[in-house]
Design brief:
195 residues, alpha/beta, TIM Barrel, nine-stranded mixed β-sheet, 21% helix, UCP030820
Length: 195
């Protein structure tokens, strides 16, 4: 009915053992009814559950959420605003990337950080690859669950693929053209002044 995944992750800028498990609902099978999130039992332990499951089981999971044992992951087609006013309940929030090419998670992360004020751990889960990490950190991610078939130690290098950024974002509020100090000549030449 459901599956739990546990791995090493990148947190900050180091590889660490992850004590959280991501709970995913079984994919619907053609001709069979979809899994109802209200009927899924969350096993004991620290679980990152789908937002849809947490919303329907909020009261059932309230004690575990308050104890820091339950966190949520947001699907790419869900809105982070659903958690407005509720963010302080969670020890972390994850954003799911169902496919490498699905960029909606970047917007979700950016909105969580800038519009909703989330300051806790923001984790990328799903189809997360090295090539995405630098851009993910720019929009506010600080933890990454790399796809299981990839080397997490190699992926860590993706956080430092570039030495400079041009645009402003969550990690750098000022664009490069505002950060670049242009030398001012000691004696100003007024040739062409007023043109």
């Amino acid at each position: 009915m459901s599956e739990a995944v546990k791995n090493l992750i990148i947190k900050g800028r180091e590889v660490v053992a992850d004590d959280w498990q991501v709970l995913r609902l079984a994919e619907p099978v053609e001709g069979a009814p979809a899994v109802d999130p209200a009927t899924v039992a969350v096993p004991e332990g620290k679980f990152i559950v789908p937002l849809s499951l947490w919303l329907v089981q909020r009261e059932v999971l309230a004690a575990r959420t308050a104890a820091g044992e339950i966190a949520v992951w947001i699907a790419s087609d869900e809105r982070p605003e659903t958690l407005k006013g509720l963010l302080d309940q969670f020890p972390l929030i994850a954003v799911d990337f169902p496919k490498f090419t699905d960029g909606r998670g970047y917007s979700i992360a950016y909105n969580l950080r800038t519009r909703l004020g989330w300051t806790g751990e923001l984790r990328a889960v799903g189809d997360v690859l090295r090539d995405q990490l630098f851009s993910m950190q720019r929009v506010g991610f600080d933890a990454y669950a790399i796809r299981a078939d990839r080397d997490v130690h190699d992926a860590l290098k993706g956080l430092s693929d570039f030495s400079e950024t041009y645009q402003a974002s969550v990690d750098q509020k000022v664009p490069l053209f505002r950060r670049h100090a242009r030398p001012v000549p000691a004696t100003a030449n007024n040739d062409g002044a007023g043109i």
